[in-house]
Design goal:
Shape: globular
Strand content: under 5%
Structural class: mainly alpha
Number of strands: 0
Distance between the termini: 8 Å
Length: 284
């Protein structure tokens, strides 16, 4: 099959799974609110009726830095643990819902309901979590081999800052080009589990490697395209959030609607990758 045909079929399959993507979005939204609401309460309690809020709305003023530091110190102290907890919850949720999505994409249309989606997600949660941690370890190893080791060999203290920056840019591109291979291994391992019903993690990883290199070029470029689309969506989301923060009124509501629409589109992009991998496997 041609790459464009595979991508099209994957996009259609992921779009037809919109009910499950909405379920994912709702659960993740509730999770974010559970973290954001206590944080908002802490900010409100810390600032109270202080004029610091009005000063910051007009732009950052170094003059208020000394006043704001004692207020933010207890909040910032808890930030790393809060962010780490949010990232961990994010990993757990994606590992959970991936089981339902892969089962959906390997099941005939019309025979998969929401309750079955949750059942499949629960069934494959721990095996998928195991696949994530193994591939995460491989990603760390790839980062060491593609970036840290070459920089250490080149001895940056002798090459100069400009040469070091240019080298890091090249190595970052090399690192990024290797990521689709790891994603293919992980996705094929998950697909193999939901297709065979087997939950043996290391056996699935081996099957993932075998499927990845069975039709490597087409699989690689298909996933690379999806990954690039996902990166562009992330960049546009960050640009929109950083450049369009409203202060009050209806604009806050519109800002929320647009950001959540972008989140759903990003979830669709991830499902698009899953569906594309299953589609390629069916036509190998």
């Amino acid at each position: 099959m041609k790459i464009l045909s595979v991508l099209k079929r994957g996009a259609v399959k992921s779009a037809l799974a919109y009910k499950f993507l909405i379920v994912m979005w709702l659960v993740m939204l509730v999770t974010v609110f559970l973290v954001a609401i206590p944080l908002r309460a802490e900010f409100k309690s810390a600032f109270g009726t202080s004029m610091l809020k009005d000063s910051l709305l007009g732009g950052f003023d170094l003059g208020v830095l000394g006043d704001i530091a004692p207020v933010l110190k207890p909040i910032m102290a808890g930030m790393p643990s809060g962010i780490l907890m949010l990232l961990l919850v994010n990993v757990l949720l994606y590992s959970f819902f991936a089981g339902g999505l892969f089962t959906r994409f390997t099941t005939e249309y019309g025979n998969f309901r929401v309750h079955e989606y949750f059942k499949s997600s629960a069934r494959y949660f721990f095996p998928f979590l195991g696949v994530f941690f193994i591939v995460f370890g491989m990603t760390i190893l790839w980062s060491f081999l593609s970036i840290l080791l070459p920089i250490a060999i080149l001895k940056p203290q002798e090459t100069g800052m400009e040469a070091l920056v240019n080298t890091i840019k090249i190595l970052a591109v090399v690192w990024f080009l290797g990521i689709p291979v790891l994603l293919l291994v992980a996705d094929h391992a998950r697909r193999w589990m939901t297709t065979t019903g087997t939950r043996r993690v290391f056996t699935a990883i081996g099957a993932g490697f075998q499927s990845t290199f069975k039709s490597f070029l087409m699989s690689y470029f298909a996933v690379l395209i999806v990954l690039l689309v996902s990166v562009v969506l992330s960049y546009l989301t960050l640009r929109f959030v950083s450049g369009s923060l409203p202060e009050k009124g209806i604009f806050i509501f519109l800002f929320f609607i647009v950001t959540q629409a972008l989140v759903i589109i990003k979830l669709w992009a991830k499902a698009w990758r899953y569906a594309t991998v299953t589609e390629m496997a069916f036509h190998q």
